[in-house]
Amino acid sequence: MSAVTSFSELVLAAPVLQAVAEIGYEAPSPIQAESIPPLLEGRDVLGMAQTGTGKTAAFALPLLSRIDPAQRFPQVLVLAPTRELAIQVAEAMQTYARHLPGFHVLPIYGGQSMEPQLRALRRGAQIVVGTPGRVQDHLRRGSLQLDRLQAVVLDEADEMLRMGFIDDVEDILQRTPSQRQVALFSATMPEAIRRIAHTYLNDPVEIRIKSQTSTVTATTQRYWLVEGLNKLEALTRILEVEEADAWIVFVRTKTATAELAEKLEARGYAAAALNGDMNQAMREQTVEKLKRGALDIVVATDVAARGLDVSRISHVINYDIPYDTEAYVHRIGRTGRAGRSGDAILFVAPRERRMLRTIERATGQRIEQMRLPSRADIADRRAERFKQRITETLESQDLAFFHELIDGYTQENEQSPTAVAAALAFLLQEERPLVPQLPEPRTTETGRRAARSERDSRAPREDRRPRRSSRDEDDEIGPTVSYRIEVGRAHGVEPKNIVGAIANEAGMESRHIGAIDIQDEYSTVDLPEGMPTGIFKHLQKVWVCGRQLRISVAGEGLGGSRPPARKPKLSVNGGRSRKDAAGQSAKAPKSFKSAKPKRSAKPKTARRKPPTD
Fold this sequence. Notes:
By secondary structure, this protein is an alpha/beta fold. The chain folds into 4 domains: 7-208, Rossmann fold, CATH 3.40.50; 219-374, P-loop containing nucleotide triphosphate hydrolases (Rossmann fold, 3-Layer(aba) Sandwich); 376-428, no CATH class; 473-593, Alpha-Beta Plaits. The protein is 39% helix and 14% strand. The chain is built from 23 helices and 20 strands. The strands form 4 sheets. It has a 7-stranded parallel beta sheet with strand order 3-4-2-5-6-1-7, with helices on both faces. A 7-stranded parallel beta sheet has the order 10-11-9-12-13-8-14, with helices on both faces. Helix 2 packs parallel to helix 3. The radius of gyration is 29 Å and the shape is elongated. Residues 457-477, 567-589, 593-605 and 608-613 have low confidence and may be disordered.
């Protein structure tokens, strides 16, 4: 099946194939080429492939092709280890199903109020994507019916095992019809996952995709966390400041190549598109222009740039993050060729940080975060180029006439040569000021939280989970409260089960979970002070190892309906308001804010075209 070179060769439903073409997917990845045909036939699939190889489309496209949009009951259930992945999968499916009339996909996960999910389930959805804990909650309530389910997908099964959800996954599988189709995807195949595959999959097609990625040692890799400015503004700042010869800018779709190239041309850059819609003659003409220096920037898709070998390319910009790690390595391989060093810059939206970490693991190299050039950086660079133009003109032009002109002017008007030169410089740069009036890059609180989360998640694994005796210096959650939960050693609970359940269902990072003490019939866990009432009530109903947590403040007995109130404080700390003298309620610490249930040759810079008269 790996010989498949286009999605049109796969027997996908026409509306799904139309969406694929509009998105700009040009050729299926190996996992997609291997998985789509058997899933279309109704076969079970056991896929072993790394994150970032295109697994979501591998199961979404064939299963969407098989559902009946006219029927408003769950036909496909996708289990994902985290709410972030559940949302990502649901959004991808909605995109692929844009031309399926009446289609609805519903993500269900902890940290969100039950009521919106209950209303959505009553309205009906053909596909449900959820975390194991929240799916079980709905099964117990009777709000989620699986009796007419056609297919189940276990996405990142080994991650669900690591987070302690594997018992929940088995319980859910046992509640599904015996004739349903099952697709299990996992980066690794530990014994517990292999046992589940043997128990619940029927004669599966086994697919193993070996990562072809490798390190690219000749290329310096950096990323910019998209925040505060739009990507086009960020791109032009980078083009202004970086010492570069030629650039290739990667986007996801053919349409985007033309749109971005036009915008760069409008800003004065020598740019052109390169995509699969261009015939061979046009493509060769564009590449030839890039080679001889008539173009400095090519905006391309992955497929169009394959095999592109232009020694001038010193920089690769991943304007859109690639769908898989293979594509990333192919992209940055366009620079650093013929023994030269190269630079690769990756634009990463906060929600795409998971893919960033996947790329790092696949390439075996750390990608450093970069600071976006400021107004001062751009002014310095423009001034440097301005001085260089003066030097080149002094060395190459006959300026005798202009010497006489300036000498005459200075004598007639009693001005110094320096003042006249300054005035001439001002006139020359008037249309494009050396000191640009640009908004400074800003980092909002959302951006700061994203940056902190990114930094923490990129720390060595042994440092990610806090030592129970102390907290990181950067930890801002303040004091903790000890809570009792009604699950213990006798029920088979382990710390990872508790951490996984609370982190997912309360929507908080595991580093905010403190000391855990497991007794025979119960356990205690330290959590940040200031837990919102909604989260507290939700955690009371969460199930772990077949037991409801029934969380309560340690020492106060069972049945507590609310978390402890916080004492008034009269200071401001870290931007979080505290209680005032009148005893107004303090805001929850940051660890709980996001968890509230939701309501709703010589290097040169990129050449600009000379101004027209």
